[in-house]
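Quick question: what would this complex look like in 3D?
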Amino acid sequence: MKLFRRVTILGIGLIGGSLALAIKKHRLADTVVGISRRRQTLALARRAGVIDRGSLDLSAARGSDLVIVATPVDTMLSLARQLSAVIGSECMVTDVGSTKRCVVARYETFFSNYLGSHPLAGSEKKGVRFASGVLFAQSLCIITPTAKTKGRVVTKMTKLWRSIGAHIVSMSPERHDRVVAFVSHLPHAAAFSLASSVPKEYLPYGATGLRDTTRIVASDTKLWSSIFLSNPDNITKAITLFQQHLRRLKESIRRGDRRRLQIFLHNAQIKRQELA
Amino acid sequence: MKLFRRVTILGIGLIGGSLALAIKKHRLADTVVGISRRRQTLALARRAGVIDRGSLDLSAARGSDLVIVATPVDTMLSLARQLSAVIGSECMVTDVGSTKRCVVARYETFFSNYLGSHPLAGSEKKGVRFASGVLFAQSLCIITPTAKTKGRVVTKMTKLWRSIGAHIVSMSPERHDRVVAFVSHLPHAAAFSLASSVPKEYLPYGATGLRDTTRIVASDTKLWSSIFLSNPDNITKAITLFQQHLRRLKESIRRGDRRRLQIFLHNAQIKRQELA
């Protein structure tokens, strides 16, 4: 089902590339244009059939009826003005940023047909060569409409996400940033800190426990700096709560309080079961 | 290659059951006897061909030339005396406990042919029904000989572990407990605390990041209470170091110090690569 004539995707990494592939796979647009800062990425994306056309220049977004911004969050913020000078006022705009308040606030001032999105998909893999047309199948996509968002933009963007297999949840940008601080940013903060803590000479003895808990440390560090810095108040609050629990656990161990320790572990386990 | 006539395994859980299966698979003993506190476990283990004979009574260990203790650490400590009254002085004894100082110290006072072992294998699965004869293939097994350990015991136990596919590393019980505090106990402490920190109503939004970092929270909580309490000084030290790194990361985020943040994430990532 065709939804758009021409979709431009800014940033052809894992998410942008996977979106391009999914849009082509489901024939949701006539043309998919990819814009990247790297010639190599464009060549790779074209060769792999991820995009129909590629450009190093933002002006290639001209004439699109949908622009999807899939760059790191700080790049999103910095290119909004320039993008608004290129595209028409009727063009729909969305982004896939991992934090929403700052992006939504800025994009709403520049674009009248904007809706923030955050597909909860991806992996620690980086780059268009890991792009997959089924990355969003059975995934969750949070959309963050505000009082300014037009109903027809929500309807159309919901259709797009559903067409590529995602389930939609709608919440405010503020709630979104609180939620992801806990379910995504905090686990990353914990994993990076955990990997930092293990003495190098002990690493050869790391088994599946350490491997699993630190897998996401392989994530793009530039992207993650950008995410952490775009949601600092919620993330530091989440870390503070984590520190409190860690302190409580440590105290039970130090005191040899088996009862408190078992209750702590048991409650964590009960909660974790909700996730499965 | 037969190494023993009669092996008795105390505790037929995931590790004990897998050991029994591996010993039978490689024909390392004539008879494998399983001792458990639960009739149901014995019935299951016998039906599945995990053990040749089962008993609820410790005295069934009589006449063995090897006893492997595969119970939680606190049970190991409490049954040493009783076990020593049952088995002959020539019987070899080992254990598979996750901490070694306390077990080794106690077992050396009761058994003259003892060697501590810690196979770094297993999973969050619990119980004999997940036992596998190939659990130790390509795994690492730490043995912890001391000045009191006899050379022929080390030789024979090394043969046993190698025969079922494990690679052997030898270190003192003290070093073992420092190492595992970081590579195994700390990741568990972090994962349990992380699961505790996430508000319940946010859990439906948890994606692979949260799922992976907290997978080990599904581990046996009684076993883990016992492990934490048997290595408290090393674990609290490891948690303290983790808290320092966490505080540093939080501070970089709070201050918006992108340079420090990126260095932190980058260093963690470089270190994590050693693990792969």
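Answer marked as accepted. Chain B has ten helices and eight strands.
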